[in-house]
Specification:
Elements (H helix, E strand, L loop, with lengths): L16 E6 L4 H4 L6 E9 L1 E6 L2 E6 L2 E5 L5 E5 L4 E8 L4 H7 L2 E3 L3 E3 L2 H15 L2 E4 L5 H19 L4 E3 L3 H16 L6 H7 L4 H12 L3 H19 L4 H7 L5 H12 L3 H6 L1
Length: about 270
């Protein structure tokens, strides 16, 4: 499916809601990544190893995982396993976000009732197949069902949710940098600029960041940019040059180099595939 390109001022990079059906390990999911959306992952069968903010977990059949906006994470599906992944922007479930936005979740894995799980899985497959992405308000034929799926997931999580408050800068420093990347990746940004703006010691911040991601700020920023660019290539008819600049690359050449580095393909070959 091709999507109409929306004006840049409408922030067309923001996904209101997306659904992915995985029975394989995507390279993008196995790398540590992050985004500004809530993410719920239902384990349909088998097991999945997941890494969230430096902690490893294992989720199994009948369980669901929640990832908050700006949390760094990755996951690996074990053999013969399958999951369904849902992402939605904070304002798509604003009352849910208002309840937990200033808290950290103590237990990101929770049990989902069989009735709710069956409804969500069957309804999603009926409507979307393997994948669906909405970057603008969905057609009326989808809207009610998407809201039902979203709030069913939120409701199941809140039945057993445990939180802790985030009240110090040191607890939240990595997520602050991640939020800075997500909100400003189109621009020419740097960790030094962030440190100066937020009164952090640059050397200390750089050490923390490099230790957490096992690489530097520029590498993480470019990884995020290339993932945004790939979604543009797959889901829009925008010219490749427009995608390069909309994703924060300073030139077509730097965009081509990044595609070759991370995907071993040129942008045009990625789009064709």
């Amino acid at each position: 499916m091709k999507y109409i390109a929306f004006p840049q001022e409408e922030k067309n990079r923001n996904i209101l809601f997306s659904y992915y059906n995985y029975d394989y390990n995507s390279p993008a999911c196995e790398k540590i990544h992050f985004h500004k959306y809530y993410e719920f992952i239902i384990i349909e069968h088998g097991t999945m190893e997941i890494f969230i903010d430096g902690v490893s977990y294992v989720a199994k059949d009948g369980e669901c995982v929640i990832i908050q906006p700006y949390q760094a994470h990755s996951f690996h599906l074990n053999e013969n396993s399958k999951n369904l992944t849902y992402n939605f922007l904070k304002n798509y479930a604003s009352s849910f976000d208002a309840f937990n936005s200033q808290k950290r979740i103590l237990k990101p894995i929770f049990t989902i009732s069989s009735i709710t799980s069956e409804f969500i899985i069957n309804k999603s497959k009926e409507l979307f197949g393997r994948k669906q992405v909405f970057r603008s308000p969905p057609d009326k034929k989808y809207e009610t069902d998407i809201k039902a799926i979203t709030y069913s997931l939120c409701s199941e999580f809140l039945k057993s949710a445990e939180f802790t408050s985030v009240n110090t800068k040191s607890q939240n420093i990595i997520m602050e940098v991640i939020e800075y990347i997500c909100d400003n990746f189109e621009q020419n940004i740097s960790l030094k600029e962030f440190a100066l703006k937020h009164n952090y010691n640059y050397q200390y911040l750089s050490r923390r960041f490099n230790t957490f991601f096992d690489t530097g700020f520029k590498e993480v920023l470019n990884r995020y940019r290339i993932e945004q660019a790939i979604s543009y290539l797959e889901e829009t008819d925008l010219p490749i040059s427009s995608i390069a600049f909309a994703s924060g690359f300073q030139s077509i050449r730097s965009f081509n180099d990044a595609c070759l580095k991370y995907y071993n393909k040129t942008p045009s070959k990625i789009r064709k595939k």
